[in-house]
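We append the chain.
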Amino acid sequence: MDEKDVEKTTFIGQNMEIYVDDMLIKRRETRDHEPNLIESFENLKKDNLRLNLDKYVFGVTSEKFLGYMISQRGIEPNPDKIAACQAM
């Protein structure tokens, strides 16, 4: 991570990452995900924070986040961002 971005990033436990106003709640095992979501939502509620549910997706195996694809395989380039290079 670039040093200038460290102050904009919050790691809340090992399963939640927040960058400015983007939040990622992650877990490798599906069975563990629901308790993590509940805990995260309780923490947000305790701090009087609200979510715009139109901007959230739940239960996906991969998703675009901060310009990258995040999945169980790890962090990969966003295919939309590298399409021009691949077409060369």
